[in-house]
Design goal:
- Keywords: ATP-binding, Nucleotide-binding.
- This protein has helices at residues 73-86, 97-103; strands at residues 2-5, 14-19, 22-29, 36-39, 67-71, 108-112.
- Strand 3 and strand 4 (36-39) form a beta hairpin.
- It is α+β, with helices and mostly antiparallel strands and 122 residues long.
- The protein folds into two domains: 1-45, Penicillin-binding protein 1b fold, CATH 3.30.2060; 47-122, no CATH class.
Length: 122
């Protein structure tokens, strides 16, 4: 299986090739000819940042007119909080949850959350 990622803050997309459940190769590739540019050991895909860097566009630039879908927003919020606390330099390129919510307030938003159901026992 192949997964291509087009990060907004990268000049080239990244191709991840899987062998079963394991990553077999990870590399930058050319969109024009689909050929490998450079093999890489790792890559961090940042979830979003809000104009706190030199980038012209952020991931949120693409959802201004669309719908933003959250899968388990509570877990996302906790993971973001932990990420920002791990290293103070993360705040340079990433915003906190409340800043994200203010930024996307005008967009359509859908949240999927697991809710435990009680059995009514028939």
């Amino acid at each position: 299986d192949i997964l291509d990622i087009y990060p907004v803050n990268s000049e080239h997309p990244i191709r991840i090739e899987f062998f079963g459940d394991e990553i077999d190769t990870l590399r930058f590739f050319s969109v024009e000819n689909q050929r490998s540019i450079e093999q890489i050991d790792s890559y961090t895909v940042t979830p979003f940042f809000l104009g706190k860097s030199d980038a012209d566009y952020t991931l949120l630039s693409y959802v201004k007119e669309g719908t933003l879908i959250y899968d388990e927003p509570g877990r996302i919020q906790e993971a973001l909080k932990k990420f920002l606390k791990e290293d103070p330099t993360h705040r340079k390129n990433h915003c906190d949850w409340s800043e994200l919510q203010r930024t996307v307030a005008a967009t359509n938003q859908v949240a999927f959350t697991f809710m435990q159901q009680r059995s009514i026992g028939l």
